[in-house]
Amino acid sequence: MTQNMHTILAALMFSLSFFLPMESTACGMSYSEDNTISSYWSTQESISLSPGGYSSPVWSPDGERIAFVSFKDGDQEIYVVSVDGENHRKLTDNSASDRTPVWSPDGEKIVFESDRDGNSEIYVMNTDGSNQKRLTDNNASDRTPVWSPDGEKIVFESDRDGNSEIYVMNADGSNQINVTRNAAADLNFAWSPDGEKITFTSDRDGNIEIYIMNTDGSNQKRLTDNNASDRTPIWSPDGEKIAFTSCRDGNLEVYVMDSDGGTQINVTRNDGHDLNFTWSPDGAKIAFVSLRNGTFEIYIVDDDGRTFENITENSSWDWSPVWSPDGEKITYVSSEYWSSGIYIMDSDGGNQKRLTTTENSGPSAGFTEVFITFYSCNNSIESFHLDNFETNEGRICDPSEESCSCVFSFIPQEYRVSVAAIILMVFVLAVIGYDIAIKPD
What we know:
Elements: H1 3-16, E1 37-42, E2 47-49, E3 54-59, E4 65-70, E5 77-82, E6 89-90, E7 98-103, E8 109-114, E9 121-126, E10 133-134, E11 142-147, E12 153-158, E13 165-170, E14 177-178, E15 186-191, E16 197-202, E17 209-214, E18 221-222, E19 230-235, E20 241-246, E21 253-258, E22 265-266, E23 274-279, E24 285-290, E25 297-302, E26 308-310, E27 317-323, E28 329-336, E29 339-346, E30 353-354, E31 369-375, E32 381-388, E33 393-396, H2 416-438
Antiparallel strand pairs: 1-2, 1-31, 3-4, 4-5, 5-6, 7-8, 8-9, 9-10, 11-12, 12-13, 13-14, 15-16, 16-17, 17-18, 19-20, 20-21, 21-22, 23-24, 24-25, 25-26, 27-28, 28-29, 29-30, 31-32, 32-33
């Protein structure tokens, strides 16, 4: 076999590797969704979710309880706690991963995803953890369920048709319909407050943009149009505006536009990454996470971007802010000195209080490093590395560092096909060009 043929085969094998399922990397890092931030503890061999890791805090509609996910018992389970820190209760209890809890609008049910039956499926349960029922049943991955505003339907993401698509089903799991029906990756969806529209993210036109459609999938329309990535659309409570993150300025920023795509403005305007945002219930403010001061802090900005305020302003790493239904409180995740937990504070940052216990809130024996990761621009995961466990000082990981190499250049399965094709084409053309250049007359 010639050297050139070896080169072509190597390129082919490398390119085909992009098509393989990649729920986790070789370093053990799990898939992280857009607009979310995840914490990972590291040994020399692997990176994994923190044994004490907390995530996904979400308020009950009556504002009395908070559901969340914790890894403190060795796997992701769903818990609930009262806003005063009492009545801490575990709702799921199995060796699988149970995650992304979402309360039904009437506060009677919680929908979530779980891989307890071998792959990711959508489940529902009562808010006390009873009557857990599987709603989807196929060999693909069904994930990130969200209730319709009236509680009658559930939208979710599935790759059962070979690529990421958006599905809608009845709340009992019946009548599951693919509403995007496109060969591209469609994900990161949100119901409009009136339940008439769904916004979502797609790469169907060559780069990641934001689209809108009717809830039955009709009248799909592109709202953003630029060479950067625009993603994670979230409706304002009145349905008049849509906030989203964009890389059009070279880093992650939070933008706001009219619901028809008009008047797109950058409301965070900073060189540091700004992400992981949420609207206040009155639609006047947006809480978001920023790295502008070198660590993860929660900020508040007016919906027009005029007024900023750092409301956490401490040595901890703070992320995943969620407003209470009345707008008076914000729950969030905080990590300091190897200990993470669910916290609550006034909407101006006052009275910061931990709701979860410190028991099993830190890493297990043998873990030596901690990373906080999030989706950055160019479909990669960016990682913030904790350098000093006593002061919580850290930095953005350098991809040349061996300890950081696992969390870089992660390309989601949905975007890997085009990348693989480009890599293969470049290698083949290079070999062909080389042959032509040296071939004797």
